[in-house]
Amino acid sequence: MESLFEIFISFLIIGIGAYGGGLVTIPLIQHEIVVKYNWLTLREMSELLAIAQMTPGPISINTATFTGYRLAGVAGSIIATAAVVLPSIIFFTLLTPIITQFKENSHFYRINKSLQLGVLSLILFAVWSYGSAVIRGYLDFGIATAAFLLLVNCEKKLHPLIIILVCGIIGLIFF
Q1: Mean local confidence (pLDDT), 34-46
Q2: Is the separation of the CB atoms in 26 and 95 below 8 Å?
Q3: Among 28, 45, 73, 97, whose Cα sits 20 to 30 Å from the Cα of 173?
Q4: Residue-level pLDDT at 4
């Protein structure tokens, strides 16, 4: 059983770094629970992310809840989930009024633009690390590439949920 304090601090760090949304948290989650603490393997994390993306709610919260439960039962689940949402609660409660005042400030705009570039790098890293854990051969690569190309070329005509369901059916047939 892992220390509840370590679980809290790890998911607090993930919550602090979640600027930009769910995909941004993937490299943070990977660093904390795979690299730093070895609580999960990269393969286990990729499976966890697949489950977290299929269930309702943000990836970071679903991942925190599952990982906390796996490490320390219900208490771990509660601690991890609370820790990952705490920074957002504090941010919105304390900083939103201040940020609203500086919204039109050119310095604030440049900082925000630079943060967006950092977020993009985290998303690209998430794609790279998650892809390397999931894609194990040419068939995997072909399915992922075809799904990506369909999403890019048919984004206004084809709902992403259809792509996910078709990939699931293909998986039932070929795997």
Answers
A1: 89
A2: no
A3: 45
A4: 94
pLDDT in tens, 106-145: 888 888 788 888 878 877 887 887 777 778 889 999 999 9
Q: Which residues contact 65 (CB under 8 A, 6 or more apart)?
A: 77, 80, 81
Evaluate whether 69 touches 77 at the Cβ level (below 8 Å). yes
* Residue with tokens 């500086």, as numbered in its chain: 102
pTM score of the predicted model: 0.70
Can you tell me the mean pLDDT for 93-116? Answer: 81
Q: Which domain holds residue 51?
A: 4-114
The Cα–Cα gap between 68 and 39 comes to: 10
Task: Give domain status of residue 87, yes or no.
Answer: yes
Overall residue count recorded for the chain in this entry: 175
Instruction: State both tokens at 50.
Output: 């697949």
Q: Is the pLDDT of residue 57 over 70?
A: yes
Residue 3 to residue 80: CA distance in whole angstroms: 11
Does residue 8 lie within any of the structural domains?
yes
Buried b / exposed e over 90-114, threshold 16 CB at 10 Å, is eeeeeeeeeeeeeeeeeeeeeeeee
Distance CA 121, CA 93 (A): 28
Single out the residue of 121, 158, 146 nearest to residue 27, CA to CA.
121
